[in-house]
Design a protein that fits this description.
Rossmann fold, five-stranded parallel β-sheet, homodimer, 181 residues, alpha/beta
Chain lengths: 181, 181
C-alpha cells in the first residue's frame, strides 16, 4: 500500500531537469494535483495520522501549501490558516525573515490567526533546506500554537530540511523522497 | 438553511473599512477560512450542485482560490489546476492579460493542464469586476475546457463581475453578496 502510493506519486510528479537553473531537478507537483486519484490519495495519506487528534487549524505555506492545506483542513473539519508572502494579509501581522540562496525573504501570519494552545498542522508541498518551514514554525510559536506535525508530499533528504524541523521537536510526515537533489 | 449559512458567513467574514484605500471596504475571508465550521460549510455549499456532475478539475485562481479549490477538488474527487500569477509555473504556459485599476496584470495556465472537453469548475474567493475571472475563462477556453460553472464565496454585485461571467454562458454560484461595495 505504502509502496503503491509511492510508485503512483513518483509517476504523478513531473521532474524537470535544469529548472530553474542548470543542475537542479525541479519536482513539479502540478501534475500530481491535476491527477484526481493521486491528489485525493495524497491528501488522505497526509491527514490519516491526525484524524481524531483534535487538529484545530491546518497552516498552509503560500502558495502550493494552500492547495494541499485547504483540502486537508476540509478533510479534518478544521480551520485553515494562510502563512503568506509579505504584504498580502490585510490585518496586523507578525513576520519572520529567512535566508534564500541569494538574499532573504519573509513570511507573515495574522496576529490573531491562532490562539495559544491550538493544535496546528503545518503543510507545504515540498521540504528542501527547510528555511520556509522554519520561518513558519517561528511564526506559529510566537502565537503559542501547539504544532502537532509538519506535513509535506516531497522530501529532499539530502538538503536536511526534515531534520531541521525535527530539531524543533516537531514530527515530520512526508510521502515520497527524492535523493540526490 | 440558506439564510442560516448567509448569516454565519456574514459574521465569519471580517470587513475592514478603508483598506487597501480610503472608501473601500475590504472583505477578509481569512477569518472565514480559520473558522472550521464556516470553512467546511462554505466548501460543501459550493460543491453541492456539482457532486456527481463528472467534474474532472477544479481550477483555482491564485492565491485564495487555491485554498477553496484544493478543498473543493478533494471533496469532488477531481483534480486541481492552478491558475497562477506570471512566472510561477515551470512548464509551457499560455497567458492572458487583464486590466487593473492602474496598469494590467497577467494570469498563466500550463498548456497541458486541461484536456479538450474536460469539465472544469472555476473558483475564487470573491468576484468584483470579474477581470481575473474573465482572464481565467479565456485561458481555460483556449484549452477547450468545458467550464461547468464559476464559484465564489462573495459577490460584490454592484461591480458587475457575476454578470460578466454569465455573459460568457457560464453559470455563477455565490454564497453571499455585499452590496454598496
Amino acid at each position: 500500500m505504502e509502496n503503491t502510493l509511492r510508485t503512483q506519486l513518483q509517476s504523478a510528479i513531473r521532474s524537470i531537469p535544469d529548472y530553474p537553473k542548470k543542475g537542479v531537478i525541479f519536482r513539479d507537483v502540478t501534475t500530481l494535483f491535476g491527477d484526481a486519484d493521486a491528489f485525493s490519495r495524497s491528501v488522505d495519506a497526509l491527514v490519516e495520522p491526525f484524524v481524531d487528534k483534535g487538529i484545530t487549524q491546518v497552516a498552509g505555506i503560500e502558495a502550493r501549501g494552500f492547495i494541499l492545506g485547504g483540502a486537508m483542513a476540509h478533510r479534518l473539519s478544521s480551520g485553515f490558516v494562510p502563512v503568506r508572502k509579505p504584504g498580502k494579509l490585510p490585518r496586523d501581522t507578525i513576520s519572520v525573515s529567512y535566508e534564500l540562496e541569494y538574499g532573504e525573504d519573509r513570511l507573515e501570519l495574522h496576529k490573531d490567526a491562532v490562539e495559544p494552545g491550538q493544535k496546528v498542522l503545518l503543510v507545504d508541498d515540498l521540504i528542501a533546506t527547510g528555511g520556509t518551514a522554519e520561518a513558519a514554525i517561528k511564526l506559529l510559536r510566537q502565537l503559542n500554537a501547539d504544532i502537532v506535525a509538519a506535513c509535506f508530499i516531497i522530501d529532499l533528504p539530502d538538503l536536511g530540511g526534515a531534520d531541521l524541523v525535527k530539531s524543533f521537536g516537531i514530527p515530520v510526515q512526508t510521502l515520497i523522497e527524492f535523493e540526490g537533489d
